[in-house]
Amino acid sequence: MRAWDLARYVHLLRLGYLAGMLPSNECWPRLGRLREPVLQEFDGWADFAQSYLAGLQLWSGTRGGTFEDSCRRLLEHPRSPWTYFGWLAFDG
Fold first, then answer.
1. Which of the two ends of the chain, N or C, has the fewest CB atoms closer than 10 A to its terminal CB?
2. Which alpha helices (H) appear in 1-92, and where do they start and end?
3. Which residue ranges of the chain lie beneath pLDDT 70?
């Protein structure tokens, strides 16, 4: 479920930036601090997606549905950033 929390944090940073409440020079360092926890806790995009979907289910009380489909496409489609760049792009 940790991936859900991390993704929500990223989403809230984005909303804060779009609302004009956080300048980009404050958002980027905050995003950068997520790198180590993500790399320590997850083995790859499939692991991250599984954790995200578990958090989504707990938060919403329903199964992933379209989110499960989206994760599957991100893991399998050749033009997906997850497959195109891979997990190591995040690590490098």
1. C
2. 2-18, 24-32, 35-41, 45-60, 66-76, 81-91
3. 64, 88-92
